[in-house]
Amino acid sequence: MAVERTLSIIKPDAVAKNVIGDIVSRFEKADLKVVAMKMVHLSDEQAGGFYAEHKERPFFKDLVSFMTSGPVIVQVLEGEDAVAKNRDLMGATNPKDAEAGTIRADFAQTIDENAAHGSDSAESAAREVAYFFADEELCPRTR
Ligand code: GDP
Ligand code: MG
């Protein structure tokens, strides 16, 4: 297994619930290291561009409206198998299907407001990290 990076977003519902620290703590306990982090209130353009792959989906408008409803925490996580590990910690897209103890099971109720985003592949991770961060904003922790 290689050290890789993934993009994580703590979505507006979880920020509003005041559970930023709890979620970051789960990443740290799983040996993922934060190598970049910022709080942003996304514009329609930023959220729509980030989710461009879903542009034709019926829920796209609702998704953009939710993602711009309040500030989010955008992070780059680094560690062994970071992409899959983050997806495991988050649980299924629909919190109703998410395993007990996962972020989405613990902090979300519905598929449209589901607490967290995580890149779904190494390719998506590279694109998503570059969408939010310049190279010099990343602070490698393993050297
Ligand atoms: P993810 O990779 O697990 O976040 O899931 P997807 O990439 O398939 O979808 C992106 C995001 O769109 C999800 O996290 C949800 O916030 C939202 N979403 C997905 N499916 C639905 C849906 O059927 N209805 C609504 N309202 N939102 C959805
Ligand atoms: Mg996805």
Brief write-up:
With 143 residues, the chain is α+β, with helices and mostly antiparallel strands. It has helices spanning 12-16, 20-29, 44-50, 60-67, 82-90, 103-107, 122-132; strands at 3-10, 33-40, 72-80, 116-118. The site of guanosine-5'-diphosphate has 10 residues, from helix 4.
| Oligomeric organization of the protein chains | single chain
The rounded Rg comes to: 14 Å
Structural class: alpha+beta
Uncertain stretches of 5 or more adjacent residues = none
- For the biggest β-sheet, the strand order reads 2-3-1-4
Task: Provide the succession of SSEs.
Answer: EHHEHHEHHEH
State the helical fraction.
25-40%
| Largest pleated sheet | 4 strands, antiparallel
Bound ligands, each once: guanosine-5'-diphosphate, magnesium ion
DSSP, total strands = 4
N-to-C CA distance:
17 Å
Keywords: ATP-binding, Cytoplasm, Kinase, Magnesium, Metal-binding, Nucleotide metabolism, Nucleotide-binding, Phosphoprotein, Transferase
Subcellular location: Cytoplasm
Binding site for ATP: 11, 59, 87, 93, 104, 114
EC number: 2.7.4.6
Give the SSE layout:
Blueprint: E1 3-10, H1 12-16, H2 20-29, E2 33-40, H3 44-50, H4 60-67, E3 72-80, H5 82-90, H6 103-107, E4 116-118, H7 122-132
Antiparallel strand pairs: 1-3, 1-4, 2-3
The chain binds guanosine-5'-diphosphate and magnesium ion.
Guanosine-5'-diphosphate binds at residues 54, 59, 62-63, 93, 111-112, 114, 117, 120.
EC number: 2.7.4.6
GO molecular function: kinase activity
Domain Nucleoside diphosphate kinase-like: 3-140
Short key terms for the protein model shown above:
4 strands, binds guanosine-5'-diphosphate, four-stranded antiparallel beta sheet, alpha+beta, 20% strand, single chain, binds magnesium ion, 143 residues, 38% helix
